[in-house]
Design goal:
heterodimer, A: 303 residues, mainly alpha, MetI-like fold, 12 helices, globular, B: 321 residues, alpha/beta, Rossmann fold, eight-stranded mixed β-sheet, four-stranded antiparallel β-sheet, 10 helices, Peptide ABC transporter ATP-binding protein (chain B)
Chain lengths: 303, 321
């Protein structure tokens, strides 16, 4: 009998083992739900993600993204059939904006992902090892940070040649220094935490300290920055597309669309207006989401 | 159990350019702790008492002198010596709130030393942690809680459970109660006293609270600016302090009544910077018994009397005659 209850206490259910985590998540959810702008951001981001997921099946004219030409209906204003109007070769702008979410999401994820993969380990090494290693990493980071990101990206694409892959590569290469800064500062602070000293006094290796004690405590600011950066990466990619350095025009990418559409302003305004709205709303959504995440994950760093 | 021989811990805080600046946090400390005794180390902030505790566990690099733990030379650590050191000696930190990783459950925190040093895993590990929590008076319900869900006293109990997980022989307690509520302090102290008796632990108890040291420790050493100025049996030292600094420390303890008895003037000024140590006796600038021409010129000799030791010119003469 006694042994039985003991076993039960030692092998508690999933809910019991994670009661603390569940309580914390519930608190996060409540705080987040009370924050109106954060919920708006979440709604926009969810809409964006669903659109990207089911886009090809809901658009009215899927072939319009693949280079179809209907010159008889070119530059039609918005109506019941073509909600966002048509462009200079008669393609449905709504279809192209919706399908543009996929490539936009792809760019955002890859740029932020690569930036994190480069930046987080470098920042962690710099902060943890210190000394000349830190000096070297941080000075290189400073050099990258001192040049405006987009200008550097333009230079890199200029050297590699225009194209969507090169644009993503260029944006990733200018995006990582922010993560180095963030993670290095956080690591530097966490390294002197008493629980890190305690772990060391128990004989934990440096590797264990980094992965068990420092990295998990860095995740909140990294997540906040990543969600903000998704928005900024989208903006960056659109800018490159607009300059003709990113995705090339027949491809349904928002920046590239605006780049062609701007010559049709102001008379055929819908052609550039709707891709522009898509960019603005998406970037806003990611920023609001990031702000909301910061409020719940990192309340001390609220500005 | 723990022996320090002229232990020195200096920190190089030089700027990149400019002259060399060295903080002499611990400057030649000799101590002997016998197995199973509770030894108190007192002094004001900046006297280097915490640094001694950290140096004993190699949490700060040792500049000079010798460190011996459990009869084994530990001044320089190779891998094997380090593993043994981590199992023999553990530390309890001042602030239990920051001594536990906020992202780890109590189970994971207390299990960490066991994971590092024993093959215990899974259910056996959980059972061992639950048993440890029981020793410190916490129920199994705490296993899956996070530190922020616990009170200060409970967190300190968790830290104690973690420290005794590997059955160490030496515990270094760095002001283990000063971050806690007064009501909880006495509980933790009582528990620490009982724990020491039950497990036969050796304590190096670092504190600025003289009453706490008097309650827990049989012997005590008083530190000032990186050196030990007086050492002896707790009762003898407290009832008959010899070094002017010890006398001043004891006088500074507030009495629990509104009208304080006249105890002469308290110490003037702050503890001098350990970067720029005064010549001669380190205490001479604040000493009420300052002898001009002696105290500011010559380092005071150590005068030993059995177990007791005092480092002051006043007693050097007595020893000579």
């Amino acid at each position: 009998m006694a042994a039985g209850t003991q076993d039960a206490a030692l092998a508690p259910s999933f809910a019991e083992r994670h009661a603390g985590t569940i309580r914390a998540l519930r608190l996060y959810a409540r705080t987040f739900a009370r924050n109106g702008s954060a919920m708006l951001g979440l709604a926009i981001v969810l809409l964006f993600l669903t659109t990207a997921a089911i886009g090809p099946w809901i658009v009215p004219f899927p072939e319009d993204a693949a280079g179809a030409i209907h010159l008889d209906i070119k530059l039609q204003p918005p109506d019941a059939v073509h909600w966002f109007g048509t462009d200079e070769v008669g393609n449905d702008v709504f279809t192209r904006v919706v399908l543009g979410t996929r490539v936009t999401l792809q760019i955002a994820c890859i740029v932020t992902g690569v930036a994190m993969l480069i930046g987080v380990p470098l920042g962690m090494i710099a902060g943890f090892v210190g000394g000349w290693v830190q000096e070297a990493i941080m000075r290189v980071t400073d050099v990258f940070l001192s040049v405006p990101g987009l200008v550097l990206a333009i230079a890199i694409v200029g050297a590699l040649g225009p194209g969507i892959v090169n644009a993503m590569l260029a944006l990733s290469l200018v995006w990582w220094p922010g993560y180095v800064r963030l993670v290095q500062a956080k690591t530097l602070a966490l390294k002197n935490e008493i629980y890190v000293q305690a772990a060391r006094s128990m004989g934990a290796s440096s590797l264990r300290i980094v992965f068990v004690h420092i990295l998990p405590n860095c995740t909140s600011p990294i997540m906040v920055k990543a969600s903000m950066d998704m928005g900024m990466a989208i903006l960056g990619a659109a800018s490159l597309g607009f300059l003709g350095l990113g995705a090339q025009p027949p491809f349904p990418e928002w920046g590239a669309m605006i780049s062609v559409a701007r010559t049709y302003l102001p008379d055929w305004w819908w052609y550039s207006f709707f891709p522009g709205v898509a960019i603005a709303v998406t970037v806003l959504g990611f920023n609001l989401l990031g702000d909301g995440l910061r409020d719940i994950l990192d309340p001390k760093h609220r500005e | 159990m723990l022996a320090l021989d002229g232990l020195k811990v200096h920190f190089d805080v030089s700027r990149r350019r400019g002259e060399k600046v060295v903080v002499k946090a611990v400057d030649g400390v000799t101590l002997r702790l016998r197995k199973g005794e509770a030894f108190g180390l007192v002094g004001e902030s900046g006297s280097g008492k915490s640094t001694i505790g950290k140096a004993a566990l190699h949490l700060v690099p040792i500049t000079g002198g010798r460190l011996e733990i459990g009869g084994e030379e530990m001044t320089r650590l190779d891998r094997r010596a380090e593993r043994r050191l981590r199992r023999t000696a553990q530390m309890i930190f001042q602030d239990p709130h920051s001594a536990l990783n906020p992202r780890m459950t109590i189970l994971r925190s207390v299990a960490e030393p066991l994971v590092l040093h024993t093959p215990l895993r899974g259910a056996a590990l959980t059972a061992r942690v639950a048993a440890l929590l029981e020793i410190v008076g916490l129920s199994r319900q705490f296993l899956y809680r996070y530190p922020h869900e616990l009170s200060g006293g409970q967190k300190q109990r968790v830290c104690i459970a973690r420290a005794i997980a590997l059955e160490p022989e030496l515990l270094i307690l760095d002001e283990p109660t000063s971050a806690l509520d007064v009501s909880v302090q006495s509980q933790i102290l009582e528990f620490l006293k009982k724990l020491q008796a039950d497990l036969g632990l050796t304590y190096l108890f670092i504190s600025h609270n003289l009453a706490v040291v008097r309650y827990l420790c049989r012997r005590v050493a008083v530190m000032y600016l990186g050196v030990i100025v007086e050492e002896g049996e707790t009762e003898a030292l407290f009832s008959n302090p010899r070094h002017p600094y010890t006398q001043a420390l004891l006088k500074a303890v507030p009495y629990p009544q509104a009208v304080q008895p006249d105890r002469g003037s308290p110490l003037q000024g702050d503890i001098p910077s350990p970067v720029d140590l005064p010549p001669g006796c380190r205490f001479h600038k604040r000493c009420p018994a300052f002898i001009p021409g002696v105290c500011d010129r010559h380092e005071p000799p150590q005068v030993r009397d059995g177990d007791a030791m005092v480092r002051c010119h006043l007693f050097a003469d007595a020893a000579r005659t």
